[in-house]
Design brief:
The chain has about 230 residues and is mainly β. It has two domains: about 120 residues, Beta Barrel (Elongation Factor Tu (Ef-tu), domain 3); about 100 residues, Jelly Rolls (Sandwich), CATH 2.60.120. Helix content is about 10%, strand content about 55%. It has two helices and 18 strands. The strands form three sheets. Strands 1, 2, 3, 6, 7, 8, 9, 10 and 18 form a nine-stranded antiparallel β-sheet that branches. A hairpin with a 2-residue loop joins strand 9 and strand 10.
Amino acid sequence: MLNFNFAGKDSYLDYGILISSRPTIPSPKRRVSFIDIPGRDSSLRFDEGTYEDITIVVECSVASGDIMQKIDEISAWLFNSGENDLIFSFQNDKKYKAQVVNSIEFKQVLRHSIKFPVIFTCRPFKYAVSNNLITITQSGTNLINPGTIYSLPKINVYGTGDITLKVNGEELKINILQNKIIIDSFLYDCYDDNHSNLNSKVSGNFPILKVGNNLIEWTGNISKVEILPNWRWL
């Protein structure tokens, strides 16, 4: 049976929702601008290297219980959850970051039956459901990205003094580290466990983990590095 899990709730087990067919999953559109110049063949292309959101439409129905109560319960669940994890039963090891923003048109087809489409607006990528923390204690360790596009990790660095963290040769210098710093490549932010701003202590580019092998190195007094990888797929 097809079903989906959104914001920790199961569409069938919690709401009795039946899905008529497997939804179409579009690939994200790459943002490329085209500029036509008079007298010049073809167009100039500016590739931003980014992707647009995708839309996934799920055709649903409910055929039991108090229909009006079901409508209220389903609407509250989908709209009040905001942006949250969306997992489909046919690929339960991946998740989307999704939100329902469009109105839902509930159509009564029988006395105790309704049909309705749920339109999910999703960020461009799929993410691993199991986003486990990876601990590295040895400089020169290789980390393999199993996804199909680079990821933006959150990295916890434990150590003291002036240190340099290198990911695939790209250096990130950290001045006067006192025990721990969190480097968040998704937020482009550095902070400690109390969320105090530590950006002034860091220089260099925020690390990314490219598809395939990634070499993690460092110099200075580092006891360990913890990486929340945030693997993702197109």
